[in-house]
Amino acid sequence: MKKINNFKNPIIVVSIICFITALFYFPFIFRSHEKKDVKLGGSSINNACEITIQVSGSDIPIDLEEYVIGVVAAEMPVSFHIEALKAQAIAARTYVLKNTNYGQIPIEPTVAKQVFYDEDTRKENWDKSYEEFEKKVQEAVKSTEGEVIYYNGELITAMFHSMSNGMTESSKNYSGNDIPYLQSVASTDFQYADNYETVTTFSIEEWNKLLKVNWTIDDVKKIRLQRNNTGRVEIVSNDKNKWTGREIRTLLNLRSTDFQIDVIDGEIVVKTEGYGHGVGMSQYGADAMADNGSSAHEIIEYYYKNTSIEKLNCKN
Question: Which sequence spans correspond to the domains of the chain?
């Protein structure tokens, strides 16, 4: 009987090589197709455990938690209580996930969204205090890693501002949309802020240029301010013109819409209280609450009514 050497048959050799190769690669193929889900308020987001954030103006996506470090460093004074910094981290993480649909679209690093400082900027700003400040901010972010805020199973729009005027603003007053978790609450942060009140003086020429009007001082004296239930100005008017409080804030570059307009010695004096739009969490209020013993979760639950804090949970 003639002995057949299988290894001299090209078809058999190729088959054996393919079989061995398949045995080696199959585990990696299956592993690469494993599906990771994130459970949040009853919803499931694929691959959310590997979320990266694309900051407008940068070509390199940033890990979610690294992004939150950059926002906390930029948006809140590092001298604030650690619990206030933690609350800021939770709010910032929630805001970016909601605003970018879990990292699907870029976000501007500006006050219109969230200010973000990369590591180089933090080093430059903090100089010799960099290691100390970086450690504190990283601690705040790490201790709240993955924590987000939701209302009725949905991520909230976690608006925040620097300093209230004693009351936070409701979303209805601000935009006309009545959002259940963005209601007005008392906030005593003004007691803790050195720069709670600011005074800006304008000549009549400066005033007319900024508002694009041709008034006299007597026209300024006839101004009427209509305020809402949180003390902020809704309407500014006289016999000639009419604006919303938000429009005047923008035109005059004021810190908030809680302002008073007076004429003193021929000049226009505008006194402003608070800083920011006033909606959601007050940062100075958060610091005041933390100083008085409140935890980050208590701060969040106070400023965002009837919300819950949950962790992003990865599941294979």
Answer: 45-191+278-315, 197-273
